[in-house]
Amino acid sequence: MKRALILLALAASAGAHAQKFEGLAATPQMGWNSWNSFACDINEKLIRDTADAMVKLGLKDAGYEYVNIDDCWHGKRDKDGVIHPDAERFPSGMKALADYVHSKGLKLGIYSDVGATTCGGRPGSRGHEYQDAITYAAWGVDYIKYDWCDSKGLSAVGAYTTMRDAIRSAGRPMLFSMCEWGDNKPWEWAADIGHSWRTTGDIYPCWDCELSHSNFSRYGVMRILDKQAGLRKYAGPGHWNDMDMLEVGMGMTEDEDRAHFALWAMLASPLILGNDLRSMPDSTRRILTNKDVIAVSQDKLGIPAWKFLDDGKVEYWARPMADGEWAMLVLNRGEQPVALSYDWKAHLVSDDVSKREVDFKKAVYNWREVWGGKSGDTSHKLEAKLAPHSVLLLRLKARG
Ligand code: GLA
Question: What is the pLDDT of residue 225?
């Protein structure tokens, strides 16, 4: 009996730590990350200026919240094993930087890795997980991206659970963004561990290419999209499939940028900007702050879109939204323009995840296109011209 009680007490105390912080990603997280534009060339001024730009350019008002420092902020561990930032690049220290970012009404993210060294060869958290989580919490960090380099011999479940528990015991709610590249199918086991998990290797700013390095590849937006097949049922409020950070404003065409952004919103991926906000052209800013696209991303039902039809020329994706609304995206991934003539009534849209269905023979919906503002209803065919590498994104509301 006594033994049973002790075991029960042990299980209860373990249980108290074995939880991620809830409520941190009820909708996919939105923010910015330093990696895609700057890689290791980062410093505290860049982070401050980026926070300023997020406020000044209306990105904060549009919903972007996190300013995330990726790899290479690190200095050395001291004799007690405590990690310090690179003193030349971050001379004021991380606490001061977090205070600055918080003073703008934004949140600060940081990066570490399961291994002894990060992908950029800096000190990782292996063997220092609890110590690092306490350090980050003391700095006022709000978000941890946790990478998978130097992980040989580690169990992914074990390594990410250890960091989750470390964050819990440090006592500060920090969003836990798992960057395991999908190697061990985190969607199958990480809903109680992280708030999001990367589903693929790194993104690259091209439409449909694969860039091979010696031991890894980077993928264009169509390649990443195709790797999401079958994953939508695993995502939902508090645990998202992360399709990697955005490459909008990084060299693709405007049509490609719009398509990339709309697809990430439709599939409920985190929206983490990767461009240099300090020098962003207005055309890019308009894409990234489009209210309707962001409303699709942040819909509180949190059900990612699925492809319900592929007619060989274009793909049709649907996302059920709160209050009976829907979003629909038509994607022309090909090289030729397409003249669209879509008969709503010819296709039942039936979702095996949400169990929602819409039959346009029985119900008429009003639609509004989110880039140009064109509108119409589903009693008439949808007629439109779709340029190569472009999307049409519509929001649909049942007629009252
Ligand atoms: C990995 C991650 C990237 C980035 C780099 C940093 O490649 O997947 O997102 O964090 O490491 O070195």
Answer: 98
The best mutation among 34, 40, 72, 119 to test binding of ligand 1, ranked by most ligand atoms within 8 Å of the C-beta, falls on: 119
Amino acid letter for position 73: W
pLDDT for residue 3:
55
Residue with tokens 């702050």: 289
From residue 64, alpha-carbon distances to 197, 243, 271, 376 in Å are 19, 17, 8, 31
Residue type for 234, please?
A: Y
In the numeric block, which tokens belong to residue 167?
């964050």
| In contact, 286 and 387? CB cutoff 8 Å | no
pTM of this prediction? 0.95
Torsion of CA 68, 74, 77, 82, to 10 degrees: -20
- How do strand 326-332 and strand 390-398 relate by DSSP bridges? antiparallel
How many angstroms is it from 309 CA to the middle of ligand 1? 34
DSSP three-state, residue 254: helix
| Residue closest to 376 by CA, chosen among 362, 392, 396, 358 | 396
> The tokens of 233 are what?
């049922």
Give nearest CA residue, ligand 1 atom 1. Answer: 119
Residue 19's Cβ-side half-sphere holds a number of Cα atoms within 13 Å equal to 13
Predicted local distance difference test score (pLDDT) of residue 2: 52
> The tokens 């809903």 sit on which residue?
191
- The candidate with the shortest Cα–Cα distance to 203, out of 157, 272, 149, is 272
Give the strand order in the sheet containing 326-332.
306-310, 315-320, 326-332, 390-398, 365-369, 375-377
- List the chain residues with pLDDT less than 50: 1, 7-17
Write the DSSP symbol of residue 21: P
> Cα of 147 to ligand 1 centre, how many Å?
7
Q: Output the DSSP codes for 24-40.
A: S-SS--EEEESHHHHTT
Q: Which residues are catalytic?
A: 147, 202
d(CA 251, CA 274): 12
How far is residue 364 from each of residues 344, 355, 361, 383, measured CA to CA in Å? 9, 19, 8, 17
CA distance 124 to 74: 9
Q: Which of 110, 198, 193 is nearest to 158 (CA)?
A: 193
Which residues on neighbouring strands pair with residue 241, listed in sequence order? 197
